[in-house]
Amino acid sequence: MRLFEITLCNWQIKISFIMGYGGALLWTALAHDLKHENPERKVIFLYEKKWSDFFRAYNTSDHEIFFNNPEIDLLCSKSEWNWKRFRFRSNKKVIIDLDDISYGYFHGANEEKMFLKTTYHAISMMAMKHGIKDSLLQPRIYLTNKEINKAESIKAKFHLHADQYICLEPDSKDNWTPNRAWFKNSWQQLVDLLNQEIRHKKLSMQLVQMGIPGGISLDGVLDLRGMTSYRECASILEDAKAFISTEGGLAHLSTAVKTKTVVIQSGYNPKELMSYPQNINLFHDMDCFGCGLRTPCSLERECMKKISPESVLSALKPLLLNIR
Q1: pTM higher than 0.70
Q2: CA 101 to chain centre
Q3: Which of 137, 149, 173, 274 gives 20 to 30 Å between its CA and that of 293?
């Protein structure tokens, strides 16, 4: 998930608040919290539309996460809001500025690291700005029939049946930090262990690799990378028995569709920042946990080395007990 962009201007660091797909899903959780508190209130998302985006439906492609969401009553640019505002009663609406960096989970940043907030989940911090102390911590995505049908055709083609496959995404975006990634050898060892378990117990189970083309290619999996859009991928994940990944966009998406998710967490983020309590969050505690380091780790990601493929398999085993 990429929420922020840093650029150099006159030798000073400037931060722009932008979203990746995972970041957009955090906003859907806030909308869900607001509607849960007051279903009658209109939730309005505003953003700054640039001239370069004038002919686009949304400001960024990440806004497609909000499409078809009944808990977001309006998504529009701030300039459009100037004349749309009169359609909404002042005491029946809550306005969310998607460009407001005070919603962010950082204190500051430079080229070497993010100075990340601690104590609360990122969604909880957003919700507390609106007086909500107990966030539901549940992102949402609402698919169209067309998106569901596309995913169903893929599942039918590859004989993927509900609760009879496990999805994995071994890749981690490194354009912001390289320190959230687990190791290729560890991923392959995990796949080998899972396949041994499947054969030994004669389970009706497949392993499915999701994500975008390129990156790590695993042996012993059904490779569906690049066959769906991000939104369509939600329907594949929804029927999976489990999903395994590092912290990132698909982990948030899997949580949104309420699939049990095993997250292999590095020490980049503070533990509580992106850890959903409904998931299985694996991490190895170290003194430098929550480092926010953007440059390559001098300890060669010791926090990730300490998470073994065997420990991930052990976390998954309870989910495999009721599979035939």
Answers
A1: yes
A2: 19
A3: 137
